[in-house]
Predict the structure.
Amino acid sequence: MKNRWLILSSALVTQTILGGIYAWSTLTDLLSESYGISNAESGFIFGLSIAIFTLVMVFSGHLVSKKGPRLSAIIASVFYLFGYLIASVAHGSFPLLLLGVGVFAGVGIGFGYVVPLSVGIQWFPKHKGLVTGLCVGGFGGGAIILSSIIEAVKLSGMPLDRYFFNYALISGTLLFLCALFFSFPLSIEIKAAENKTKTAKTSTLLWVSIVGMFCGTFSGLLLVGNLAPFIRMQALSEMQAVFAVMLFSFGNLSGRIIWGHLFDRMGSRIIIHSLLLSALFYGLLLFISNELILLVCILFLGFLFGSQFVLYAGSLSRNLCVKEFSRLYPLVFLSYGFAGIIAPGIGGLIADAFGSYSAALYLCIILVLIGSVVVWVAQRLEVQQ
């Protein structure tokens, strides 16, 4: 029997590398100083990579369900490697950086993201929530690690071209080596599970997950995408705004792991708790003026935002066979990608129109309450069947 701990370690390394894309903003000043790349151009590179990543996941999910996880992971390593190799020879060309990081690396992330989730939950069937939390937590933690590496690169004075080249070789090689360990366990339980979920139940579970994921992540992305200006509107300092972003990020990372553990103990019924608690803390932001309590609310909202990436994946993995999970979870994740495109901008537009973020917070409350109602109705119907 294969060593499932080695497979889990490979899954965590893979997610940590791929999650480094969220550290892209820390390169903005180097891109500007070295190449004259504007903040808008840098942001567009990042935005395109996220859009490509979420779209490609739909195709990679089908590939994993048909051909297994190893092929998709190998494809991910190749695209990721060549993406940053292109960036290393771009020499400041915005179109080449867009092609390399935005398209090629984005495709690599899309092919790689679903693999650790699909593999991990099958090798640890009794701890699906915790394993899911560790994997998506690794994706969030990758940004923290790579940000530290980039800061060291800045201090060393390494040319950006050299950094991209070194990063391409190291990350691409590690991704390829990890890919070689990925496989699904060949057990009677998994084979028997292939036909356990009825079509009607699968469809209901899918749409509930899509609606819940969209409502929860839209609200979180609206907040974090406008968190610094929101904090400054509360008459707090720039330093406090930066600290608030750090608190949200820490809550997001820890929440992914802790909610995974809670899911293993309590099951899908805690989904509604996460949404209702989100409504409570968004409501507190409307009325709290105390600095300490405000920052605590930000921490908890990051913690609740992190739950969204664990609970729906855990619910799907518990109710679907491995092929169905690999095929359907990317469709749920698309709702997060769509929320990421529109939520921060909508929050900014509302603030510009009304002069504050109060209306935006009310929108967040309404959305998470809608999500909680949808989840509650679906769970009640399931109990009655």
